[in-house]
Amino acid sequence: MKIIRASITRATCMLILALSSPPVWSAAGQGLNGATGSVFKVNPEQRSFELLKETEYDPKTDIGRSRFTVYWNDQTRFTKVTERTSFEGLAAPVIADFNGLDEKNTKALSEGMPFVASKVSLLPGEKNAGGFSAERRQVVGWFTPDSGPTAKSGSIQVNGKPVKVSVRGAKSRIEVREAFNVADLGKGLWKATLRGAETDGRFLITSMDVQALEDPRKSDDPKLPRVLVVGDSISMNYHEAAKRALAGVANYHRNEGNASSSTAGVANMELWLGDYKERGLHWDVIQFNHGLHDLKQTYDASTNTFGAHSVPLDDYKKNLEKEITILKRTGAKLIWCSTTPVPNDNKGTYARHKGAELDFNRAALEVMKLHPEILITDLHQVVDGSPVFDTWRKGNDVHFNRGEQTRLGEAVAATIRKALSLPSGK
Question: pLDDT tens-digit profile of 324-338?
Answer without folding.
Answer: 999 999 999 999 999
